[in-house]
Amino acid sequence: MMATIRTKSPVISTDMPIHLIHRWSLLLLAIVPLGSGAGTPSTEAIVTFNTVCARCHEGECSGRLSFTDARNASRGHILRHFPAAGNQPGMVGELFELLDHMKEACAFYSLQPPAGPARKWDGKALERYTTANRRNLFIPIGRLVPGDYRLHLRMESDVRVKVHLIAENFDLVVETCENTSNGKLALPFTIEEPGSYFLRLYPQKPVRVEELTIK
To answer: Distance between CA atoms of 27 and 12, rounded to whole angstroms?
Structure first.
């Protein structure tokens, strides 16, 4: 049985046996990135990666992933731990690129803090840092200098929420799980090293964060 493959690049326009077509398809999978591989990952992908994937991969600074031996394994790994990625065009590729960045740069992918007054944000400003199902948030809060601070959260309803405050080197400054009271939660914390910090929130049910303040 014979078949013809026609592509733009590389050019393959010839009769080829099926078993050779299969081998060529495997070769294409080895050299073509998942997704477009172009441009900046979406904020949705960055927030998803840093709340779903990063917890297991922070500090894995082993250098850039090999595109020839990691792609297919990574795709299966991503879909196993985050099946919803398979329903979002380009998401699997973006998550792979973010993992590649974390391993090579040993850092979170650059993401600007929410717009608004310094370290005081309302629900509208926080929307883009929330996963689509409103279960997780990842918020870059900017640079903090050594000192004592207090984190204030106001939620639309009471909920138990896991809170991580993470330094740029992945050290956890705060790791706790607390219940809000009348939708509010206040957590004191101390910063010992200057640098950029990130807040990760895991409410136990979908809930809107109405306000976040760090003083």
So the answer is: 13
